[in-house]
């Protein structure tokens, strides 16, 4: 199998240079990679329906006899149509139409039995099927794989290439999963799995293959993440002696919740253990994670060490800097800010202060990762909005010191199943309690016909001294979706007495900072923006969040946007505008209107969209799952995690001969991650 990963696609029979380039676009440079390109779904021809029993509007196979094949006819638009009439042994009839296919008359013969694969629909009381795939009865496969495609590379071409690749598999295939583990979890061998995932004879064989490959995928990922966790368990150079949390809580202008105290105590306990802390603080919007991070910084600094906090955007970094400065500087703690937008002289001053230790807490963006950023005694590394950073970036920041304590925070509630996969290298603290006085945000879903009423609703609140956000998915009018620039112009005409501002990612950092400062200071009544305001922006006077084209966003992102309001003592509202009629979009809108619990929303988001789309874009620095499905593979994930832990306890470096195959797969996976 390893030799096939060294064999380029151009050397595979039937694949020339052009097709090899197309396969490269699919992420398939070698024959081995092709065998790991699993079908995204299957056409199930194994149990064909009678015409009467075929479910409507669902892809399925129907067995029927061709009764007649009509001559070509042409529609007014010039489309060529060929009608085929078919019947089955029950006497039911099926009308079939093919488009622009002049070969149908020579491919389908009257009196012969065929399997037609497609969607059966009803029209004027008759069952119909449009442009189905078909094959003579007895000649078609039980399960036909459907592969990822790119322009110029159809699933049939991929299927043919895979068939050639399978012929190259050696009779004795080295399996990375040792026999003992396969037997313990009733897993088939790798050769059987590859044959039956690509060319299954029936659904049972496909499921056996899929379960084994999903287990292998999750096992390799967990081995890598847990190995990283194990490396962080070396003796810490920064053991915390003085737990001074009680002094920190007195600095707060509010009483901390029980959940905040618990999370901070868990973190400090880790830092007192003699081993590096490696912890995720996860909480819903507005649950107070920043106060927990500030508590950890305070404890570390009071013990004579330094801390650093990395945020994904300039806006969020500036906000953290402002809040942490006002909280900690009265206690004599010097806080600095480092972002790409600072002038060279300012950057130099901040870097010098971090290096000589006079700067005790440094807040910044990716600018913190440059090699010339050094610290005198860095003991605590914090990353905020962790899902926007990758494993490699988190490690790069931690490498600024010798085994520092690591704290990561996420305001995106993550289902337990997804957290187990992504954060397998971390201990998890959950802040499951909101501070007292937080208002429940009333959420409504309307169509575009009610937009003007909604805008006047916002105007009414502006007249009372409040503020509002309007979110658009596009920046300019090149898109058919609501755009910030066009919307801002029209809004100034509709609401001429309101002060309108706009914000989007193409603006310079200084422009964005000024707009956000003006909004925070109350100089802007309504801010029209893209999702750049999704995280961290805190304006207690803002009470309305109106989201255009709401169907464009996942539930978790909608929940994050909604969390920008309701941060003060005023009743707040979220208005979702969509004309989408598909059931998935409507289901998401219903969930948003029915619950404000971020963890419930996250679970629903995972069910509706799957883990691949959970964050709206690929989780940077983590591999996409090729075959495991966290909606259905929770048991497989748990088995893989337990197996990974047992293996690493027995053989931490995976050096035993039986484990070398797994070690090679882990190295390959995390080499790919570091290059992402």
From TrEMBL:
All residue ranges annotated as the Helicase ATP-binding domain in the record: 270-431
GO molecular function: helicase activity
InterPro entries, alphabetized: ATP-dep_DNA_helicase_RecG (IPR004609), DEAD/DEAH_box_helicase_dom (IPR011545), Helicase_ATP-bd (IPR014001), Helicase_C-like (IPR001650), NA-bd_OB-fold (IPR012340), P-loop_NTPase (IPR027417), RecG/Mfd (IPR047112), RecG_dom3_C (IPR045562)
Key words of the record: ATP-binding, DNA damage, DNA recombination, DNA repair, DNA-binding, Helicase, Hydrolase, Isomerase, Nucleotide-binding
Pfam families, per the entry: DEAD (PF00270), Helicase_C (PF00271), RecG_dom3_C (PF19833), RecG_wedge (PF17191)
PROSITE patterns, per the entry: HELICASE_ATP_BIND_1, HELICASE_CTER
Record-annotated Helicase C-terminal domain positions: 450-612
Its EC number(s): 5.6.2.4
Reaction it catalyzes: ATP + H2O = ADP + phosphate + H(+); Couples ATP hydrolysis with the unwinding of duplex DNA by translocating in the 3'-5' direction
Annotated function: Plays a critical role in recombination and DNA repair. Helps process Holliday junction intermediates to mature products by catalyzing branch migration. Has replication fork regression activity, unwinds stalled or blocked replication forks to make a HJ that can be resolved. Has a DNA unwinding activity characteristic of a DNA helicase with 3'-5' polarity.
Family: Belongs to the helicase family. RecG subfamily.
Protein name, as recorded: ATP-dependent DNA helicase RecG
Natural source organism: Caproicibacterium lactatifermentans
Gene name of the record: recG
């Amino acid at each position: 199998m390893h030799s096939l990963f060294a064999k380029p696609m151009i050397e595979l029979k039937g694949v020339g240079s052009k097709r090899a380039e197309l396969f490269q676009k699919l992420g398939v440079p070698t024959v081995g990679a092709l065998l790991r390109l699993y079908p995204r779904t299957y056409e199930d021809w194994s149990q064909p329906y009678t015409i009467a029993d075929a479910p409507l509007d669902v892809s399925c196979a129907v067995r029927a006899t061709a009764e007649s094949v009509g001559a070509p006819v042409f529609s007014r638009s010039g489309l060529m149509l060929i009608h085929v009439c078919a019947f089955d042994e029950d006497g039911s009839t099926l009308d079939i139409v093919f488009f622009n296919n002049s070969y149908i008359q020579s491919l389908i013969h009257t009196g012969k039995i065929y399997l037609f694969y497609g969607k059966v629909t009803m029209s004027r009381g008759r069952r119909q099927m449009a442009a189905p795939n078909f094959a003579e009865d007895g000649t078609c496969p039980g399960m036909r794989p459907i592969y990822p495609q790119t322009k110029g590379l159809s699933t049939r071409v991929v299927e043919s290439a895979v068939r050639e690749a399978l012929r190259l598999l050696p009779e004795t295939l080295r399996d990375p999963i040792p026999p003992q583990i396969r037997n313990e979890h009733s897993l088939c061998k790798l050769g059987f799995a590859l044959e039956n995932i690509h060319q299954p004879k029936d659904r049972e064989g496909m499921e056996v293959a899929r379960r084994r490959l999903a287990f292998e995928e999750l096992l390799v990922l967990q081995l890598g993440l847990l190995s990283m966790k194990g490396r962080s368990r070396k003796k810490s150079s920064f053991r915390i002696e003085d737990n001074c949390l009680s002094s920190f809580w007195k600095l707060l202008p509010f009483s901390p919740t029980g959940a905040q105290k618990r999370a901070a105590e868990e973190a400090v306990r880790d830092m007192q253990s003699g081993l590096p802390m490696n912890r995720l603080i996860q909480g819903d919007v507005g649950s107070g994670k920043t106060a927990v991070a500030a508590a950890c910084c305070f404890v570390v600094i009071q013990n004579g060490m330094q801390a650093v906090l990395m945020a994904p955007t300039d806006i969020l970094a500036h906000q953290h800097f402002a809040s942490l400065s006002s909280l900690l500087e009265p206690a004599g703690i010097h806080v600095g800010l480092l972002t790409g937008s600072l002038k060279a002289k300012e950057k130099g001053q901040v870097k010098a202060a971090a290096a000589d230790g006079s700067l005790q807490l440094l807040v910044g963006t990716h600018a913190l990762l440059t090699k010339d950023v050094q610290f005198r005694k860095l003991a605590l590394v914090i990353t905020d909005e962790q899902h926007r950073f990758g494993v490699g970036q988190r490690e790069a920041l931690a490498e600024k010191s010798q085994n520092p304590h690591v704290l990561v925070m996420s305001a995106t509630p993550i289902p337990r199943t997804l957290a187990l996969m992504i954060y397998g290298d971390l201990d998890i603290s959950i802040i499951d309690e909101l501070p007292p006085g937080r208002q429940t945000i009333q959420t409504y879903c309307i169509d575009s016909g009610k937009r003007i009423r909604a805008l006047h609703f916002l105007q009414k609140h502006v007249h009372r001294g409040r503020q509002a956000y309007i979110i658009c998915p596009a920046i300019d009018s090149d898109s058919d979706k609501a755009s910030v620039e066009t919307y801002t112009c029209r809004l100034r005409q509709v609401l001429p007495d309101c002060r309108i501002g706009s914000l989007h990612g193409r603006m310079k950092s200084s422009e964005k900072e000024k707009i956000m400062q003006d909004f925070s200071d109350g100089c802007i009544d309504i801010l029209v923006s893209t999702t750049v305001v999704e995280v961290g922006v805190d304006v207690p006077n803002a009470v309305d969040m109106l989201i255009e084209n709401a169907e464009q966003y996942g539930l978790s992102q909608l929940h994050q946007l909604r969390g920008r309001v309701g941060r003060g003592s005023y009743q707040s509202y979220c208005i979702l505008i969509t004309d989408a009629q598909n059931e998935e979009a409507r289901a998401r809108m219903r969930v948003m209107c029915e619950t404000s619990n971020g963890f419930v929303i996250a679970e629903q988001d995972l069910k509706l969209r799957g883990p691949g789309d959970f964050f709206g874009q690929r989780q940077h620095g983590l591999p996409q799952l090729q075959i495991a499905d966290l909606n259905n593979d929770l048991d497989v994930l748990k088995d893989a995690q337990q197996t990974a832990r047992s293996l690493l306890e027995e053989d931490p470096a995976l050096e035993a001969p039986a484990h070398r195959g797994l070690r090679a797969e882990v190295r390959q996976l995390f080499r790919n991650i570091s290059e992402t």
